[in-house]
Amino acid sequence: CAGDPGRIPAPDGEAPGRWATPIAPLWDVPPPRRGGGKRFLDLQNDVSVSDVDLARREGYVGVEHLKRYTTLGMATDQGKLANVPGLAVMAALTGRTIAETGTTTYRPPYTPVTIGTIAGAETGRHFRPLRRTPMHDWHARNGAVFTDAGLWQRPWYYPQPGEDLDAAYRREMTAVRTAAGIVDISTLGKIEVQGPDAAAFLDRVYANDWARLPVGRARYGVMLRDDGFVLDDGTTSRLGEHRYFMTTTTAEAEKVLAHLEFLLQAAWPDLRVHLTPATEQWAAMAVAGPRSRAVLQAAGSDIDLSNEALPHLGAHEGQVAGLPVRLLRLSFSGELAYELYTPAGFGEVLWERLVEAGRQLGLVPYGVEALGALRVEKGHVAGSEIDGRTTLDDLGLGRLASTKKAFVGSVLRRREALQDPDRPGLVGLVPVDPAQRLRPGAILQPHGGPHAGHGLGHVTATTWSPERGHYVALGLVSGGMGRAGEVLDACFPLRDEVVAVRVTAPCFIDPDGERLRA
After folding, report:
1. Cβ atoms within 10 Å, residue 108
2. What letter would DSSP give residue 497?
3. Contact 239, 278 (CB under 8 A)
4. I need a surface site. Which of 146, 154, 329, 377 has the fewest CB within 10 A?
5. Which helix (H) or strand (E) holds 138?
6. How would you write 425-455 as a 3-class SS string?
7. In what order do the strands lie in the sheet with 131-132?
């Protein structure tokens, strides 16, 4: 210290090296007398002292104006490195203190996000457009409780007096399994695919084969993204030599249309194919259950409904209840079922005529809760399994993929990591104790512990099974069906629940498909 004129010896009891005068802040380095040069304040956005001075001269002296005019502090550090020097320079240029100049507002991740901010988006419909099906007014008049499916309002369930959600959907499920039910499926995406190269186009976008699909037949298909993961599934019917009718899931309708249009415009502009989005042009409903054929016969139809003329996956155009329809024999529930598509203006009339024709046969309307529950019993995959992270093999659909053609995603789906046998695969789950409830989202852990981390997988969907008399579930678990018979723990921390479950096949009813072919 004796040789340093800027320091003084430390008083007794204090650490040596204390400065004799306070440290003076150096907000920017003065430029050299010759040559000038940049004096940077924000190294991420290249904001310099001259930029701040220009902002002052342009009148942007307020801190929020300065920030947006120069982009000071708008990089990934959110101003943690540059804001104070920049504000100090503005203060000096305007003859004020930093406190008088003010400071900007920090944003996440440097400030916490309040719960109110997250919940604040759920204060109403805002300016989001509302989409309603052609039968919406009938549902409202008949006591339906609605739920949002994207922008769509769909009937959730139809409670009778004294029924809650659980009681209502179980009653609706039972009606479909024992008699018949009718459900509004107008929200499905619908695309008309037409042109001489339509079959070749479908062959390229679907993983399975489409070139040999005969007229008057429908087929289940799965589309992949370029990276080999599943994009969407649905059915496409061949109504004419060069005319197909495609349906997509409600959630992915817009994404699938954009995907197909991009391929036609950018990848295969030589194909003679035209796509027409027709989601809102068609009202759609499904009649399902062992008496569904009798319901259509009671309503009257010029279409032969026999197994020989209209087998499972058959597709015909004609009339039902005196109205024009596209009639597809498809089943999401696992029961004998038909999907009816009619021009939107006829939707409510056709629905009412079917309800009236089926009244004596035990037909009941059912909502999306029962619709989803029925598909879980049958083991059909939906959005909770096709979540953007699953492959055909993960979902047990690898056998659908053609080995004789190229299709979107056909190369990258064979990447080594996607062939790992330990990847999460689709399984069924049943509680070891039939009295216990299974919850969607539960984490699957080794039985008996330890229960830590992400576990072995998760429960994707659950339902009460009227036929089994207990809850059943679908899940994605590491190793998939290689764990068949194994007992795991389904942990649901939100309710502090741990339920022992046994891994089974994902189809809980009619595994041979006898009902839907009845």
Report:
1. 9
2. E
3. no
4. 146
5. helix 136-141
6. EEEEEEECCCCCCCCCCCEEEECCCCCCCCC
7. 131-132, 152-157, 145-149
Q: What is the DSSP letter of 289?
A: S
Cross-strand pairs, 193: 244, 275
pLDDT, tens digit, 9 for 90 and up, residues 336-348 = 999 999 999 999 9
Contact call for residues 220 and 275 (beta carbons, < 8 A): no
Distance between CA atoms of residues 342 and 349, nearest Å: 10
Q: Which helix (H) or strand (E) holds 184?
A: strand 180-184
d(CA 139, CA 154): 9
DSSP string, 223-251: EE-TTSSEEEEEEEEEEETTEEEEEE-ST
**Tokens linked to 4:** 């340093």
Q: Which amino acid is at 44?
A: Q
Q: Residue written as tokens 């969407």?
A: 232
H/E stretch holding 325 reads strand 323-328
Of 94, 77, 85, 75, residue with least CA distance to 39: 85
Q: Which two tokens mark 484?
A: 């068949």
- Specify whether the CB–CB gap between 146 and 137 falls below 8 A: no
CA distances, 461 to each of 249, 349, 386, 481 (Å): 17, 34, 12, 17
Can you read off the two tokens belonging to residue 323? 């109205």
Query: What whole-number distance in Å separates Cα of residue 317 and Cα of residue 191?
Result: 16
On whether the CB atoms of residues 456 and 462 are closer than 8 A, the answer is no
How many beta carbons lie within 10 A of that of residue 113, not counting itself?
10
Residue 448's φ and ψ, nearest 5 degrees, are: 85, 0
Is pTM beyond 0.85 here? no
The long-range contacts involving 16-25, CB below 8 angstroms and separated by at least 24 positions, are: 25/88
- 3 state DSSP class of 302: coil
**Tens of pLDDT along 248-273?**
999 999 999 999 999 999 999 999 99
Residues in the chain, pLDDT under 70 = 1-21, 121-125
Alpha helices in 161-304 (DSSP H): 165-178, 198-205, 253-262, 292-299
Mapped onto helix, strand or coil, the DSSP state of residue 182 is: strand
Taking only the tens place, the pLDDT of each residue in 129-154 is: 899 999 999 999 999 999 999 999 99
